[in-house]
Design brief:
Length: 338
C-alpha cells in the first residue's frame, strides 16, 4: 500500500509498504481522512523527542473497520470510528486513577507506532470510539482537535457571560474558541498574525485581532472596561506569542496553557502573584471528552467544517505539509489515503 513515510529530518517520501495485520486485541482501520497536525510538522523537521524514522505519521483520523484481530468483540467490519490516539501503559497510578492521558509512559499513534497517513492502520480495539451513522468522515477527522478544545475549556473557569482570549487561530485555537462559546462565553477574542486565519476567526463570529497590525491588549482592555479577560488560552506554543500573556487576564483571572513549547518560555510571575492568577496546563483529553467531541461534531453543535482548508491525496503529501508550514492560506489540511 502507498503511505507517506517520514524518513528523516525534513524528509517525506511516498513509499509502498506492507499492509499491516491486526494482532490480538487490535483492529485494522481503513483510513478515510487524516489531519496534518502541528506535531506532525515538528516530527518532519526532526524536532520531536520520541519520533524515530522511518515512521508513518497521523493521529487525527477517521475511518471504517476493515478487519478484526483475534479476541475483538463488540465491533464489526464497516463500523465508522474515530480512534482515540493516546497510548497509556494501563497499570501505573495515574492510569489506575483514570488519568491515563498523563501517564509517564504516554505514547501516541502516529508517533510511537505507525499512524494513519496510509490506507490501513493498526489500532488497539480499546482505543476505538464509535462515530454515529451518517456522520461526514471528513469532519470526523477533526474530532481529535475538537477534543482538545473540549478538554481545555473544561479545565478552565470559562462560563456564561465570561470573556475569553485565545492566542492562535490555528485548528487548536479555533477549536478552543468554539468550545468556549459553547460553554457560554460572550466576549471571545482570537489573535493571530496571519490575515487568512484572522479572517476565518472573524467569519466564525469572534473578535479577531491581527497582532502584527494592532494591540491585542488594547482591544481586550477596551472591551472589558480596563479589567482584562476572565480567561486567556495560549494555543500556539510559540515563545514570542506568549510574551506579555500575564497582562491580558483580569485580577483573579486564569491562564490556560494549551500550546506545547519546544523551548523554555519566560513568564512574568510577578503578575501571577500580584493579580493572583491561576495558571493551568493542558496536555491531552479524557476518553469521555473525546466522546463528547464526537457527539458535538456529529450533531453540528461543534462546527469544524470552516477549519478545513483543503484535502490532498497521499501522493501529494509533501505539498500538503509545505502548504501548512507556510501558514498563509490554511488552517487544517487533510490527507485522503485512497
Amino acid at each position: 500500500m502507498q503511505a507517506l513515510v517520514w524518513t528523516g529530518k525534513n524528509q517525506l517520501e511516498v513509499q509502498d509498504i506492507p499492509e499491516p495485520r491486526a494482532e490480538a486485541g487490535e483492529v485494522l482501520v481503513r483510513v478515510s481522512y487524516v489531519g496534518i497536525c502541528g506535531t506532525d510538522l515538528h516530527i518532519w523537521h526532526g524536532m520531536h523527542p520520541r519520533a524515530t524514522p522511518p515512521l508513518v505519521m497521523g493521529h487525527e483520523f477517521s475511518g471504517v473497520i476493515e478487519a478484526l484481530g483475534p479476541g475483538v468483540e463488540g465491533w464489526a467490519v464497516g463500523d465508522a470510528v474515530a480512534p482515540y490516539p493516546v497510548l497509556e501503559c494501563g497499570h501505573c497510578d495515574l492510569c489506575a486513577a483514570g488519568d491515563g492521558h498523563l501517564c509517564g509512559s504516554l505514547g501516541l499513534i502516529g508517533i510511537d507506532q505507525d499512524g494513519a497517513m496510509a490506507p490501513l492502520v493498526r489500532v488497539p480495539a480499546r482505543k476505538l470510539h464509535r462515530v454515529p451513522p451518517g456522520t461526514d468522515l471528513k469532519l470526523a477527522a477533526l474530532i481529535e482537535p475538537a477534543a482538545v478544545g473540549v478538554h481545555s475549556t473544561g479545565k478552565s473557569r470559562v462560563h456564561e457571560a465570561h470573556s475569553a482570549v485565545i492566542i492562535g487561530a490555528g485548528p487548536i485555537g479555533l477549536s478552543v474558541a468554539i468550545a468556549a462559546r459553547a460553554r457560554g462565553a460572550q466576549e471571545i477574542f482570537v489573535a493571530d498574525v496571519t490575515d487568512y486565519r484572522v479572517r476565518v476567526a472573524e467569519e466564525l463570529g469572534f473578535h479577531a485581532v491581527n497582532v502584527a497590525q494592532s494591540s491585542l491588549l488594547d482591544a481586550v482592555l477596551a472591551a472589558t472596561d480596563g479589567k482584562g479577560a476572565d480567561v486567556v488560552f495560549e494555543c500556539t506554543g510559540i515563545v514570542a506569542a506568549a510574551a506579555g500573556i500575564t497582562k491580558l487576564p483580569r485580577i483573579g483571572g486564569q491562564i490556560v496553557q494549551v500550546g506545547i513549547f519546544s523551548e523554555p518560555c519566560a513568564l512574568d510571575l510577578r503578575d501571577v502573584s500580584f493579580k493572583e492568577l491561576d495558571l493551568v496546563g493542558v496536555r491531552h483529553y479524557y476518553p469521555a471528552e473525546f466522546d463528547d467531541a464526537i457527539r458535538q461534531v456529529a450533531s453540528g453543535e461543534f462546527d469544524v467544517a470552516p477549519l478545513i482548508s483543503d484535502v490532498y491525496p497521499i501522493a501529494r503529501g509533501r505539498a500538503a505539509f509545505e502548504r501548512l508550514q507556510a501558514g498563509q492560506d490554511a488552517i487544517k489540511v487533510l490527507l485522503r489515503p485512497e
